[in-house]
Amino acid sequence: MATLRQLLTEAVPDLKPHSTTPFLDALLLASLAMGVPKERALADLPVELPGDIEHEFRRLLVQRASGTPAAYIRGVQEFYGYEFTVTPAVLIPRPETELLVERTLQLPGKRVLDLCCGSGCVGISVKLQQPWREVTCSDISPEALAVARDNACRLKAVVTVLESDLFNSIPGTFDIILTNPPYLTAEEMQCSRLISRGEPALALSAGEDGLEYIKRLIPKGFSQLAPDGYLMIENSDGQCEAVAELMAAAGFSEIEIIPDLAGLRRVVTGRRLEI
Ligand code: GLN
Questions:
Q1: What is the pTM of this model?
Q2: 57 CA distance to ligand 1 middle (Å)
Protein backbone atom coordinates (compact mmCIF):
# COMPACT_ATOMS: atom_id res chain seq x y z
CA MET A 1 0.00 0.00 0.00
CA ALA A 2 1.21 3.49 -0.83
CA THR A 3 0.73 6.69 1.10
CA LEU A 4 -1.20 9.55 -0.44
CA ARG A 5 2.04 11.55 -0.55
CA GLN A 6 3.76 8.81 -2.62
CA LEU A 7 0.80 8.56 -5.01
CA LEU A 8 0.66 12.32 -5.54
CA THR A 9 4.42 12.55 -6.13
CA GLU A 10 4.15 9.82 -8.75
CA ALA A 11 1.14 11.45 -10.42
CA VAL A 12 2.53 14.97 -10.87
CA PRO A 13 4.87 14.25 -13.83
CA ASP A 14 2.04 12.46 -15.70
CA LEU A 15 -0.20 15.50 -15.36
CA LYS A 16 2.39 18.13 -16.26
CA PRO A 17 1.83 18.04 -20.04
CA HIS A 18 -1.84 18.87 -19.54
CA SER A 19 -1.95 21.07 -16.49
CA THR A 20 -0.31 24.19 -15.14
CA THR A 21 -1.32 23.06 -11.64
CA PRO A 22 -0.47 19.33 -11.62
CA PHE A 23 -0.18 18.94 -7.83
CA LEU A 24 -3.48 20.70 -7.18
CA ASP A 25 -5.20 18.62 -9.87
CA ALA A 26 -3.81 15.38 -8.43
CA LEU A 27 -4.89 16.45 -4.95
CA LEU A 28 -8.41 17.31 -6.16
CA LEU A 29 -8.74 13.91 -7.85
CA ALA A 30 -7.43 12.14 -4.73
CA SER A 31 -9.95 13.96 -2.58
CA LEU A 32 -12.70 12.97 -5.03
CA ALA A 33 -11.61 9.30 -4.84
CA MET A 34 -11.43 9.54 -1.02
CA GLY A 35 -14.78 11.35 -0.79
CA VAL A 36 -13.31 14.13 1.40
CA PRO A 37 -12.59 17.85 0.90
CA LYS A 38 -9.11 18.69 -0.46
CA GLU A 39 -8.08 20.24 2.89
CA ARG A 40 -8.75 16.90 4.57
CA ALA A 41 -6.78 15.04 1.87
CA LEU A 42 -3.83 17.41 2.47
CA ALA A 43 -3.91 16.58 6.16
CA ASP A 44 -3.89 12.88 5.22
CA LEU A 45 -0.70 12.97 3.09
CA PRO A 46 1.16 10.45 5.32
CA VAL A 47 -1.81 8.05 5.41
CA GLU A 48 -1.80 4.82 3.39
CA LEU A 49 -4.78 4.63 1.03
CA PRO A 50 -6.93 1.47 0.90
CA GLY A 51 -6.56 -0.45 -2.40
CA ASP A 52 -10.03 0.40 -3.76
CA ILE A 53 -9.46 4.15 -3.25
CA GLU A 54 -6.02 3.96 -4.84
CA HIS A 55 -7.61 2.15 -7.78
CA GLU A 56 -10.28 4.83 -8.17
CA PHE A 57 -7.63 7.58 -7.89
CA ARG A 58 -5.57 5.95 -10.66
CA ARG A 59 -8.68 5.70 -12.87
CA LEU A 60 -9.33 9.44 -12.46
CA LEU A 61 -5.66 10.20 -13.15
CA VAL A 62 -5.81 8.37 -16.48
CA GLN A 63 -8.75 10.58 -17.50
CA ARG A 64 -6.90 13.72 -16.43
CA ALA A 65 -3.65 12.64 -18.11
CA SER A 66 -5.56 12.22 -21.39
CA GLY A 67 -6.44 15.91 -21.21
CA THR A 68 -9.91 15.93 -19.61
CA PRO A 69 -9.91 18.93 -17.26
CA ALA A 70 -10.26 18.28 -13.53
CA ALA A 71 -13.42 20.42 -13.57
CA TYR A 72 -15.20 17.98 -15.93
CA ILE A 73 -14.01 14.95 -13.94
CA ARG A 74 -15.22 16.48 -10.67
CA GLY A 75 -18.29 18.11 -12.29
CA VAL A 76 -17.69 21.42 -10.53
CA GLN A 77 -15.61 24.57 -10.87
CA GLU A 78 -15.25 27.48 -8.46
CA PHE A 79 -15.97 30.94 -9.84
CA TYR A 80 -16.30 34.17 -7.89
CA GLY A 81 -16.27 32.11 -4.69
CA TYR A 82 -19.27 29.97 -5.72
CA GLU A 83 -19.24 26.35 -6.81
CA PHE A 84 -20.74 25.89 -10.30
CA THR A 85 -21.75 22.60 -11.87
CA VAL A 86 -20.01 22.04 -15.19
CA THR A 87 -20.44 19.42 -17.91
CA PRO A 88 -18.81 19.15 -21.33
CA ALA A 89 -21.84 21.12 -22.65
CA VAL A 90 -20.34 24.30 -21.14
CA LEU A 91 -17.05 26.13 -21.09
CA ILE A 92 -15.21 25.74 -17.80
CA PRO A 93 -15.37 29.15 -16.08
CA ARG A 94 -12.00 30.95 -16.21
CA PRO A 95 -10.65 33.18 -13.43
CA GLU A 96 -10.18 36.10 -15.87
CA THR A 97 -13.93 36.10 -16.59
CA GLU A 98 -14.51 37.23 -12.98
CA LEU A 99 -13.60 40.66 -14.35
CA LEU A 100 -17.04 40.83 -16.00
CA VAL A 101 -18.66 40.31 -12.60
CA GLU A 102 -16.41 42.81 -10.81
CA ARG A 103 -17.11 45.58 -13.33
CA THR A 104 -20.84 44.94 -13.45
CA LEU A 105 -21.08 45.24 -9.67
CA GLN A 106 -19.73 48.81 -9.95
CA LEU A 107 -22.20 49.95 -12.63
CA PRO A 108 -25.68 51.39 -12.14
CA GLY A 109 -28.81 49.85 -13.63
CA LYS A 110 -31.19 47.10 -12.67
CA ARG A 111 -31.68 44.98 -15.79
CA VAL A 112 -28.64 42.84 -16.63
CA LEU A 113 -28.29 40.44 -19.56
CA ASP A 114 -25.61 37.70 -19.57
CA LEU A 115 -25.47 36.85 -23.29
CA CYS A 116 -23.84 33.48 -24.21
CA CYS A 117 -24.09 32.53 -20.53
CA GLY A 118 -22.86 28.90 -20.73
CA SER A 119 -22.90 27.60 -17.15
CA GLY A 120 -24.47 30.90 -16.07
CA CYS A 121 -21.48 31.68 -13.85
CA VAL A 122 -21.31 35.42 -14.64
CA GLY A 123 -25.01 36.31 -14.45
CA ILE A 124 -25.63 34.11 -11.41
CA SER A 125 -22.63 35.57 -9.53
CA VAL A 126 -23.93 39.10 -10.23
CA LYS A 127 -27.39 38.15 -8.92
CA LEU A 128 -25.94 36.51 -5.79
CA GLN A 129 -23.74 39.53 -5.04
CA GLN A 130 -26.48 42.10 -5.72
CA PRO A 131 -29.91 40.48 -5.42
CA TRP A 132 -31.62 43.76 -6.39
CA ARG A 133 -30.53 43.27 -10.02
CA GLU A 134 -32.87 41.61 -12.52
CA VAL A 135 -30.68 39.12 -14.35
CA THR A 136 -31.41 37.32 -17.63
CA CYS A 137 -29.06 34.57 -18.83
CA SER A 138 -29.25 33.48 -22.48
CA ASP A 139 -27.48 30.99 -24.69
CA ILE A 140 -28.03 29.26 -28.04
CA SER A 141 -27.38 25.81 -26.54
CA PRO A 142 -30.26 24.07 -24.72
CA GLU A 143 -27.73 21.71 -23.09
CA ALA A 144 -25.80 24.68 -21.69
CA LEU A 145 -29.03 26.27 -20.46
CA ALA A 146 -29.90 23.08 -18.55
CA VAL A 147 -26.58 23.49 -16.69
CA ALA A 148 -27.27 27.21 -16.09
CA ARG A 149 -30.74 26.41 -14.70
CA ASP A 150 -29.28 23.75 -12.44
CA ASN A 151 -26.69 26.23 -11.13
CA ALA A 152 -29.30 28.94 -10.55
CA CYS A 153 -31.43 26.45 -8.66
CA ARG A 154 -28.64 25.04 -6.48
CA LEU A 155 -27.20 28.46 -5.67
CA LYS A 156 -30.70 29.89 -5.10
CA ALA A 157 -30.34 32.70 -7.63
CA VAL A 158 -33.58 33.86 -9.21
CA VAL A 159 -32.63 34.60 -12.82
CA THR A 160 -34.52 34.38 -16.13
CA VAL A 161 -33.04 31.80 -18.51
CA LEU A 162 -33.70 32.19 -22.26
CA GLU A 163 -32.71 30.16 -25.31
CA SER A 164 -31.59 32.56 -28.03
CA ASP A 165 -29.15 32.85 -30.92
CA LEU A 166 -27.45 36.05 -29.73
CA PHE A 167 -30.28 38.63 -29.47
CA ASN A 168 -32.73 36.92 -31.86
CA SER A 169 -35.21 35.78 -29.18
CA ILE A 170 -34.49 38.34 -26.47
CA PRO A 171 -37.22 40.90 -25.92
CA GLY A 172 -36.84 44.34 -24.34
CA THR A 173 -33.90 46.44 -23.30
CA PHE A 174 -31.26 46.19 -20.60
CA ASP A 175 -29.14 48.55 -18.51
CA ILE A 176 -26.09 46.29 -18.73
CA ILE A 177 -25.32 43.66 -21.35
CA LEU A 178 -22.30 41.54 -20.57
CA THR A 179 -20.96 38.71 -22.64
CA ASN A 180 -18.18 36.16 -22.87
CA PRO A 181 -18.94 35.06 -26.44
CA PRO A 182 -16.91 32.60 -28.51
CA TYR A 183 -13.80 34.55 -29.60
CA LEU A 184 -11.05 32.10 -30.54
CA THR A 185 -9.54 32.32 -34.02
CA ALA A 186 -9.41 29.38 -36.44
CA GLU A 187 -5.70 29.07 -35.63
CA GLU A 188 -6.23 29.08 -31.85
CA MET A 189 -8.85 26.33 -32.26
CA GLN A 190 -6.10 24.05 -33.67
CA CYS A 191 -4.14 24.10 -30.40
CA SER A 192 -3.80 20.47 -29.32
CA ARG A 193 -3.98 21.24 -25.60
CA LEU A 194 -7.27 23.07 -26.18
CA ILE A 195 -8.69 20.21 -28.26
CA SER A 196 -7.82 17.60 -25.62
CA ARG A 197 -9.76 19.57 -22.99
CA GLY A 198 -13.00 18.59 -24.75
CA GLU A 199 -14.77 21.91 -24.25
CA PRO A 200 -17.65 22.70 -26.65
CA ALA A 201 -16.38 24.31 -29.88
CA LEU A 202 -19.70 26.17 -29.98
CA ALA A 203 -18.54 28.18 -26.96
CA LEU A 204 -15.07 28.95 -28.31
CA SER A 205 -14.83 29.00 -32.09
CA ALA A 206 -15.51 32.32 -33.81
CA GLY A 207 -14.33 32.12 -37.41
CA GLU A 208 -11.02 33.06 -38.99
CA ASP A 209 -10.40 36.22 -36.90
CA GLY A 210 -12.35 35.21 -33.78
CA LEU A 211 -14.66 38.18 -34.20
CA GLU A 212 -17.61 36.52 -35.94
CA TYR A 213 -20.02 36.79 -32.99
CA ILE A 214 -18.61 40.00 -31.56
CA LYS A 215 -19.21 41.74 -34.92
CA ARG A 216 -22.82 40.56 -34.93
CA LEU A 217 -23.61 41.35 -31.33
CA ILE A 218 -22.25 44.91 -31.06
CA PRO A 219 -24.82 46.74 -33.28
CA LYS A 220 -27.71 44.65 -31.93
CA GLY A 221 -26.45 45.17 -28.39
CA PHE A 222 -26.54 48.92 -28.95
CA SER A 223 -30.19 48.80 -29.98
CA GLN A 224 -31.12 46.63 -26.97
CA LEU A 225 -29.50 48.88 -24.40
CA ALA A 226 -31.52 51.41 -22.44
CA PRO A 227 -30.22 55.01 -22.64
CA ASP A 228 -26.95 55.33 -20.69
CA GLY A 229 -26.62 51.52 -20.59
CA TYR A 230 -23.35 49.58 -20.86
CA LEU A 231 -22.10 46.80 -23.10
CA MET A 232 -19.20 44.73 -21.77
CA ILE A 233 -17.41 42.14 -23.89
CA GLU A 234 -14.71 39.65 -22.94
CA ASN A 235 -12.16 38.98 -25.70
CA SER A 236 -8.49 38.26 -26.11
CA ASP A 237 -5.66 40.75 -25.73
CA GLY A 238 -5.01 41.11 -29.46
CA GLN A 239 -8.68 41.75 -30.30
CA CYS A 240 -9.29 44.69 -27.98
CA GLU A 241 -8.44 47.47 -30.47
CA ALA A 242 -10.67 45.96 -33.15
CA VAL A 243 -13.51 45.49 -30.66
CA ALA A 244 -13.16 49.08 -29.42
CA GLU A 245 -13.32 50.31 -33.03
CA LEU A 246 -16.39 48.21 -33.77
CA MET A 247 -18.06 49.70 -30.69
CA ALA A 248 -17.21 53.25 -31.71
CA ALA A 249 -18.60 52.60 -35.21
CA ALA A 250 -21.85 51.31 -33.67
CA GLY A 251 -22.29 54.56 -31.70
CA PHE A 252 -20.86 53.63 -28.30
CA SER A 253 -19.14 56.27 -26.12
CA GLU A 254 -16.86 56.07 -23.05
CA ILE A 255 -15.08 53.05 -24.53
CA GLU A 256 -12.64 51.45 -22.12
CA ILE A 257 -10.23 48.53 -22.40
CA ILE A 258 -9.72 46.75 -19.09
CA PRO A 259 -6.81 44.40 -18.30
CA ASP A 260 -7.18 41.18 -16.32
CA LEU A 261 -5.05 40.16 -13.33
CA ALA A 262 -2.42 38.69 -15.67
CA GLY A 263 -2.06 42.15 -17.25
CA LEU A 264 -3.69 41.07 -20.53
CA ARG A 265 -6.29 43.35 -22.08
CA ARG A 266 -9.40 41.30 -21.58
CA VAL A 267 -12.65 43.28 -21.49
CA VAL A 268 -13.94 46.15 -23.61
CA THR A 269 -16.81 48.29 -22.33
CA GLY A 270 -18.84 51.02 -24.00
CA ARG A 271 -21.84 53.11 -23.12
CA ARG A 272 -24.94 54.05 -25.09
CA LEU A 273 -25.16 57.70 -24.12
CA GLU A 274 -28.36 59.66 -24.48
CA ILE A 275 -27.75 62.45 -26.98
N1 GLN B 1 -10.56 32.51 -22.75
C2 GLN B 1 -10.94 31.30 -23.40
C3 GLN B 1 -9.71 30.50 -23.79
O4 GLN B 1 -8.69 31.07 -24.05
C5 GLN B 1 -11.82 31.56 -24.61
C6 GLN B 1 -13.18 31.89 -24.17
C7 GLN B 1 -14.10 32.22 -25.27
O8 GLN B 1 -13.90 32.00 -26.48
N9 GLN B 1 -15.18 32.80 -24.87
O10 GLN B 1 -9.74 29.29 -23.85
A1: 0.93
A2: 29
Which helix (H) or strand (E) segment holds residue 271: the answer is strand 265-272
Give all strands (DSSP E) within 82-216, no chain letters: 82-85, 111-115, 134-139, 160-163, 174-179
Assess contact for 33 and 62: CB atoms under 8 A.
no
Is the fold of 4-74 the same as that of 89-271?
A: no
Verify whether ligand 1 is closer than 6 Å to residue 180 (CB atom).
yes
Torsion angles phi and psi, residue 40, rounded to 5: -70, -40
Ligand 1 contact via 111 beta carbon (within 6 Å): no
pLDDT for res 220: 98
Q: What is the pairing mode between strands 134-139 and 111-115? A: parallel
Q: Domain 4-74 is in which class?
A: mainly alpha
Instruction: Walk along the chain (275 residues) in steps of 10 and give the mean pLDDT of each run.
Output: 94 91 94 94 93 96 93 96 98 97 98 98 98 98 98 98 98 98 97 90 96 98 98 97 98 97 96 89
Residue 216 contacts residue 164 (beta carbons within 8 Å): no
* Rounded Cα gap, residues 178 and 164, in angstroms: 15
What count of Cα atoms within 13 Å lies in the side-chain half-sphere of residue 185? 8
Q: How far is residue 159's CA from residue 167's CA, in Å, rounded to a whole number? A: 17
* Residue 116 Cα to ligand 1 middle (Å): 12
Topology annotation, domain 89-271: Rossmann fold (3.40.50)
Q: Where are the beta strands (DSSP E) in 31-148?
A: 76-79, 82-85, 111-115, 134-139
> In the chain, what are the domain boundaries?
4-74, 89-271
pLDDT given for residue 193 in this prediction: 83
